[in-house]
Automatic annotation (TrEMBL), chains A, B:
DNA-binding region per UniProt: 37-56
Keyword DNA-binding: yes
Keyword DNA-binding on entry: yes
Domain HTH tetR-type, residue spans: 14-74
Protein known as: Regulatory protein, tetR family
Length: 179, 179
């Protein structure tokens, strides 16, 4: 969910984002997440609230973005040299991140946000980056990968006693890649 | 999520369940869902709160159970005469139900309940009923069906701009059944 696409590192836009993220992190250390507000964040970051609404839509998405940015400092999916390896590495990291407490909070934030679909857009972008590395290979669509790999990962975390087993995750990836 | 397993229709247990469900339905018509409490329901249904806690664990699960019982008066999955047909019929109905407003409320209730895994247990029971009708046929495990059919249905409702397309649902079922 890191909203890094299209931001030049060190550019004005990236600096604004970083100051807003830093403001959120600071406020979350001082007070309960339920009591943090957009105007508070704006004051702390030295921006107007509309800057925040324009970029994130609402507070839940911003909180989700900060949570993911914390977990994934490097946005580019790992390049292992094979499509199967890249998808496995990405999916294992995703499973780890989403199973964590910040990951669960993020999923709750995003669901109650005005733009829950944003999540799929970001995940889709990361998976597309992987697929684009292997132009010669037959491969599933990003939507199919999301349905067969991301969906069970998230579903099991939200609704199951235990998270998806890594063996089943690998098997689902193999099935998705063999279609 | 209808908790019907093991209840003799017309038995004492079924009558208690029905009176509790009826109490919830009545209270939901009179007041906001956020203000309904277990003691209120117990008084209305003429049972003790512990009867409710014992059977449902917490209020969220009871609300979820009532929501699903409302949507699915007949708990037995449709029997179309083929495994593929039964899974399709079940999955299409599930997609319809979960996309509705009561379905979304139910998913929220269950997530915030103390026993979110209960949901998978019930769904698994329904899918197992279908699989058991075709003992001779090679078929996926219930867990695989949940991962490939239920998970994307729920994930797309919670996190996508639009629900899963029926064509993709059918394709996922075909892939799951062909493994």
């Amino acid at each position: 969910m890191a909203i890094k696409e299209g931001l030049r590192p060190g550019g004005r836009s990236a600096r604004v984002q970083e100051s807003i993220h830093a403001a959120v992190r600071a406020l979350l250390e001082e007070q309960d997440r339920a009591s943090v507000t957009v105007p508070q964040i704006a004051v702390r970051a030295g921006v107007t609230p509309s800057t925040i609404y324009r970029r994130w839509g609402d507070l839940s998405v911003l909180l989700a973005d900060v949570a993911l940015a914390r977990m994934r400092p490097d946005g580019e999916p790992a390049n292992t040299g094979s499509l199967r390896g890249d998808v496995r590495a990405w999916a294992e990291q995703y499973l780890d991140e989403m199973s964590s407490e910040p990951g669960r909070n993020m999923m709750r934030d995003v669901q109650s946000s005005a733009t829950p679909g944003y999540c799929v857009t970001i995940i889709g972008g990361q998976l597309q980056t992987i697929l684009d590395r292997y132009p010669e290979q037959p491969k599933p669509s990003v939507d199919r990968l999301i349905n067969m790999v991301v969906a069970p990962t998230v579903f099991r975390i939200l609704f199951s006693v235990q998270a998806l087993e890594v063996e089943e995750l690998h098997r689902l990836i193999d099935i998705a890649l063999s279609q």
